[in-house]
Write a structure and sequence with these properties.
Layout: E1 5-8, H1 23-32, E2 36-38, H2 44-54, E3 60-62, E4 67-71, E5 76-81, H3 86-99, E6 104-108, E7 113-115, H4 120-129, E8 134-135, H5 138-141, E9 150-154, H6 158-171, E10 176-181, E11 185-190, H7 195-206, E12 213-217, H8 223-226, E13 231-235, H9 240-243, E14 248-250, H10 257-271
Parallel strand pairs: 1-2, 1-12, 7-8, 12-13, 13-14
Antiparallel strand pairs: 3-4, 4-5, 6-7, 6-9, 9-11, 10-11
Helix pairs in contact: 1-10
């Protein structure tokens, strides 16, 4: 079966440790001639540079499926969005500030990233994404209703991550989903925001069969995507539980693994038919 559509996570997958698309990956993706869709927990502004470098013109998937959009000439063209309920988001942030006062918390709308404190985690995220946050007081920011796509929690402590997961489970707020990305990030979105939702849209739009689709990923939030496509390619740097769903393991994100998988697996598979 010819591969007609590729989906790819960004951080830990397409992007190297510096947060960049390598020239080799970019060349292979552009030359492959297979439609390529970014599927990321990132915001549109954090995806913009990669969209331009890869010369992508079709729909892209942000906020773990909470947003399907295209890059227009001057703005983002929203195709579909699934926002966090504002009251729920406000309740969550209030509880997190009380229970974890030193936790790094970020809030995202369509165009901006907000935080209430510049700490090591925020500096790390800014270095990777090459985007700077707006510094706000969350009490003031949440005093009026806003469109919120994602709340991001960052911790470098495995123990704290376990505490956060337990806390969110026990809090049991309605209508939210939370997904761990690697060992550092925990991202909270609308329960309808899963990577597979955006993929369903692309598959229906392009009238694809599952066998004609492939995806690259490395993290827990990639599992819905990897489990629904015809060919799941997982990075060598992924955790063991992510590798367990792979059809094939490709080199790491620092070794042009996406480009390698396209050339040596997906194009080779199509050529063999």
């Amino acid at each position: 079966m010819t591969i007609r559509q590729i989906f790819s996570d960004m951080d830990g997958t397409l992007l190297n440790s510096a947060g960049d698309v390598s020239p080799e990956n970019a060349r292979i993706i552009r030359e492959a001639g297979i439609p390529f869709t970014l599927v990321s927990a990132r915001s549109p502004m954090e995806m913009s540079a990669a969209i331009d470098q890869l010369q992508l013109t079709g729909p892209q998937i942000g906020y773990n499926g909470g947003l399907i959009f295209q890059k227009g000439a001057n703005d983002w063209q929203v195709i579909e969005k699934n926002l966090l309920a504002f009251k729920t988001a406000k309740t969550l942030v209030t509880h997190l500030k009380a229970e974890f006062p030193d936790l790094s918390i970020s809030i995202y709308d369509l165009n901006r990233w907000y935080t209430d404190r510049i700490d090591a985690a925020i500096k790390f995220e800014a270095k990777i994404t090459k985007i700077s946050p707006d510094l706000v007081n969350f009490t003031d920011y949440l005093a009026e209703s806003r469109e919120i796509f994602k709340i991001m929690l960052v911790t470098f402590s495995e123990a704290r991550m376990k505490d956060l997961l337990m806390f969110l489970n026990d809090l049991a707020l309605p209508g939210i989903a939370f997904a761990q990305s690697g060992t550092t990030y925990l991202e909270v979105t609308n329960a309808a925001a899963v990577k597979s939702k955006g993929i369903d849209y692309i598959i229906a739009r392009e009238q694809l069969t599952i066998a004609e689709t492939a995806a690259f990923g490395d993290g827990h939030n990639d599992l819905p995507m990897l489990q629904m496509v015809g060919h799941a390619l997982v990075m060598a740097n992924a955790l063991p539980e992510i590798k367990a769903v792979a059809d094939t393991i490709v080199p790491s994100n620092n070794e042009n693994g996406v480009g390698y998988g396209i050339e040596n697996y997906l194009l080779a598979k199509s050529a063999a038919l």
